[in-house]
User: Fold this.
Amino acid sequence: MSRRQLAFAAGLVPVLVWAAAGTPAFVAELSTPCPTGICATFERPTPEAVGFYAALGISPSGYALAVTVLAWARLLVAAAVALLLPRSRSGGLLVAVTAVLLPVLSATGFGAALAARSPVGQALAVAAGVVVGVLTPLLFGLFPDGRWHPRWFRWAWVAPAAVSTVSLAAPGLGDSDAVAFAELASWLLLVGIQVHRYRRADWTARQQTKLVLLAVVLVVANLVLGTLADLAGLVGAYQPVAVLLDYAALGALNVGLLVALFRFRLYDADLALRRTAVYASALVALAAVYVGLVAAAAPALSAAAVGVLALAGGVAVFALRERLRRRLFGGHGLARAIAAVARDPAPRADLAATIAQGLGLPYAAVYDRDGELVCEHGERPSEPHRESVVDGDGAEVGSLVLGAPRGTRRLDRHHRRVLAEVLPFVVLVLRARAEAQALRAARAAAAGAREDERRRLRRDLHDGVGPLLATQLLILDTHRVTGRPELLVHLEEQARAAVGEVRRVAHDLRPAVLDAGGLAAGLAAEAERVGAAGLPVELVVDLGDAEPTAAAEVALLRIAQEALTNVVKHAGATGARVRLTADEHDLELVVEDDGRGRAGATDGIGTASMRERAVEIGGDVHIGAPPDGHGTVVRVRVPR
Assistant:
């Protein structure tokens, strides 16, 4: 737990102590009907409401216990939200306002019951009313990004804050019709601000606003219906509806703010709406047990001890939130598991099994871009679902074949949403596999090329330098026996031939011009050679401060030689252009001509040799036509 979370937890202690101290009074008040209208503790049933609950078989004590459980569940959810908010990336003022407002607002029912019993409780209720009245407009002015919307509300929020404060903290004045209408107007203003922001916002902001807008709409609906019921003299019968709407609004506000303020990985609000009922049911069951323990301990413990016990329970629920989330929402760390497969693409790390088990599917199969089966898990269904795996450039790197859950024919929204989240990790796995295969092929090709080069050197030395040296030995032996001077002339010729052969072999290994002047000099010499043969060659070299590796120099020079040779032999061109450039990571060699092009031509030995040289050092070769369609362009990229 971070320091900010510890500070927020410490700030929750007074609120939970206040609620725990007011719980007995709250239960007692809810067990006794309100004489007329709606009392300060508005959950207190009216005589009409008591008759309604009796018709449903609910006794006053049963009603009091049920509402107490709901009130504590609401307070615990608000406390959990307050403890989670410091991890949000939203604005600091918005987080602070939300973390203070939600618990205080959720505990006001207990405070109202306590206010009727003691002057201290009354003072605390007034203070809480001031806090709620001031912070509520701030919340709706700053939500969801911590910036004022609209800007003029930076100064205008004081007006609705004043109205709310009077309504909540001044019971005598706040019960007047004028204040009631002013409060309704203030809420309509806040609704208008949120609707205006919703209409002008992007998709993310709209998802953040959905649940909060639902809470605001429920509050305004409650105010409007309550005002109409009061004018019609039906406020007593309306009281159960008021309680229901109020608890639903604050529950939606708690969940909505928690979802919205975690913008880094924003979940779809529609999904949150669908699952809120499940989550709320679990919390209500937990709160029922929890409140029962607190109620049993309250007679024996002081209010402070009960508050500490409440805080400890809240922290325990917070600590268990991840396990509860996994149980309720099916969280299974699927992305993390697939990322682990990407780091270790060994046969034992089965990608198909990871996806099938993570999504709860009976079948999963992974295919590469060539349609070859990579891995498979389960029994293939008759009508599987196929999902293309596309990388960031839009290229298909493979596909997934999935079987729908048992009893269904297709994947539901949850599976599709999770699948969309994990597909980038599947791309990583398929890329890792393809790169591993390419690396193995490159290693095999390099090993084969090395052995071919060794065989060529052995053949050149055996068939070229070897006979020359043997002939020289024979001439020396003959000269030793006969002493004829003309043999020395033959010996000199043979020695010169041997030197020339050694130079030829050495040049084939690495041209001397590269050691003398580098790649630019080698390309210039090659351009001069081809120019002497009758084909003008324009050479452009722009390497900046790049220093090509020895392997890159040899490969690019050999490729340029082969490309220019092909131009001379086959292109029928009137000119050629060679361009060598460098960027941060690669060298690019472009050889282009204005000849007849390669329409219908197939790769020969020279073209295959160019590709092998580039791939051997981690590069690639692309051969095609220029934009005007006349001639041929050989484009080579290799690492620096």
